[in-house]
Amino acid sequence: MDKNLDDKLFLLDISTNIFLLLDKDGLIHYANIRCSHVLSRSCLEGKYLSDFMPEKEASEFIKETGKALKNGTMDSFNLSFKSRDYIASIYPKGEFVAVCLWDITDNQNLSEQLKKKTRQLDIAEKKIQEVEEQNKAKSYFLAQASHDLRQPMQALKIFISTLSEEELPERQQLLVEKINASADNLYTMLDNLLDISKIESGGMPYHPRYFNLDDLVKTLNQEFSEIARSKKIDYCYIPCHKEVFGDPLFIERIIRNLISNAFKYTKNKIVLGCCPEHDFLKIIVIDNGDGISEEEQKKIFEQFYQCRQKYECKKSGAGLGLFIVKKLTELMNTKIEVESEPGKGSCFYFSIPYKKEAP
Ligand code: ADP
């Protein structure tokens, strides 16, 4: 055998594919080592394919190779024997046909596994979609019913306020004050829950525009200065004289929640201010209260999260205020951040675009 041919046959021998050279009757003229290995026979040359293959597979093989020989064109077909699956590629040349068998069993197993995993993923995705839709439907219902749910609460507040104007014995006056405080808490919680439903059902569309921040805070200040006086807290707003860009309803809600918290947790001082930073105006709420540990700072923006110790002594809220703040700032494409040290107070801030020239 010349050296060139020897090298070529060597290459066929080390291949992991099966190579065969057959004539039209299925007589083997060449078989590589891999073929001998799969058929568990050495010296296959001069033998017939049907001597080693089950009758059905051998006759199919001969039928396909015969067809290729007759047409003189390359062809391929699928074949299974000895629990393995192959793609057979046939190359006719004169009276002979060269056959290459490519074992695709492992690929098929892999593709089966892949298909199975894809099916599982499809099912999981469908389940998530169903839950999301149910959640949306629930939020939509709550958002739609929000007016009806708020009305009895508002009526209750009016009745309590009328009752507190009556001249009542001291003990009853005290009870009215307690009822009033509980009604306030209930109202805040209901308000928070309804806001979350609105945000999650997409019922709180974002309508940004330029507006004067001082004007917005003026309304909030009337309310908060009153609370500050009654609680003997030093509350101050440092006017910024700036036109900011955002949805006034969103920004009012965010500032309201941050200041309400500051009132709950401060010792005796709260500052609301802002400071320009590049193209943005940073709105800041500072208090000198309990502060928040580094570990808890990571959790306070989660739904229903309350720092345990503080909850025990303040016993109000439901851990939704900061979650709403987070959701609203996300909708506004900004981020709420906190800096705090236990015992020294907290500083919450977020940034929004503003007009650099004064209004
Ligand atoms: P809550 O209704 O309990 O106030 P929030 O979502 O508004 O719920 O706040 C979550 C938790 O973060 C609160 O329970 C409180 O422990 C902590 N927290 C929020 N604001 C402050 C603050 N200014 N100072 C100290 N702790 C705060």
Task: Please specify the SSE layout and strand pairing.
Layout: H1 3-14, E1 18-23, E2 28-31, H2 33-39, H3 55-71, E3 75-81, E4 84-93, E5 96-103, H4 105-165, H5 170-200, E6 209-212, H6 213-231, E7 234-237, E8 243-246, H7 248-265, E9 269-277, E10 280-287, H8 294-297, H9 308-314, H10 321-331, E11 337-341, E12 345-353
Parallel strand pairs: 7-9
Antiparallel strand pairs: 1-2, 1-5, 3-4, 4-5, 6-8, 9-10, 10-12, 11-12
Helix pairs in contact: 4-5, 5-10, 6-7, 7-10
Bound molecules: adenosine-5'-diphosphate (ADP).
Q: Write down the secondary-structure element order.
A: HEEHHEEEHHEHEEHEEHHHEE
- The general outline is elongated
The main sheet comes to: 5 strands, antiparallel
Please tell me the overall pLDDT. 87
Question: Count the strands?
Answer: 12
- Ranges with pLDDT <50 over ≥5 residues? none
Percent of residues in helices comes to 40-55%
Cα separation of the termini: 97 Å
Write structural notes for this entry.
The protein is elongated and about 120 Å long. It has a 5-stranded antiparallel beta sheet. The protein has a 5-stranded mixed beta sheet with strand order 7-9-10-12-11. The chain has a two-stranded antiparallel sheet with strand order 6-8. It has about 350 residues and is an alpha+beta fold. The chain is about 50% helix and about 20% strand. The protein has 10 helices and 12 strands. The site of adenosine-5'-diphosphate has 22 residues, from α7, α9 and α10.
